[in-house]
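Annex B. Sample input.
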Amino acid sequence: MDTYAEQLVVKQTNSSDQMKKLGIAAGGVLLIAVLLYVTIFIMPIAFIAAVGAAYGAYWLLKGMNIEYEYTVTNGSLDIDKIDEFRKALNENQTMTENVLTPTVWIDVPMPVDYVDIKLIKQFEKLQPFGKGNEKPVFADRNLTVRQSAVIGKNKNVLRCQLESEHGKLVTAIRFKLDGQEIPEVGKKISMVYYPDINEYNGIVSIQFRIEDWRYV
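Annex B, continued. Sample output.
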């Protein structure tokens, strides 16, 4: 998996930079004044040079305020200048945190108390799931975490015991953990899930496959 990190660094202005800016500005003004004097009293061609001097001073001052973007991908460092147009876009963007927050879609809210093996058998008739026939997902909230542990040979499976608002205890499981947070015992969570039947050593039980969860 690629590792990626990004940092925006703004150049810090010190007294030396301030003196340079002042010197460039003063020199530019003086040169423009001289060239304008020459333009008026000696030769019109100097007007072009005055414009050029003003343009050059502007770009020298602008160049001293460059910001840089540092990007690290798999240990490789790239440094890019941030131009004024891109900076203006970033500063004036109107995106809110809600736009950047991933959205989880569910088919219908359904308390875990309602789920039984008969209902799961009805869902199985909808198989096979795939493109054009998505697996239905449901949600319940205010589930209290009674047990929470990472299990499996590769320690990448989350297994929880949750208690509903009506006191029903259910087993919930999430496969392929990849650094996700583990729910704390005693906390209340909301859970997006798909109900499944688990058969082990001849014992049939209901388990809830966690699609997503968050604290209430």
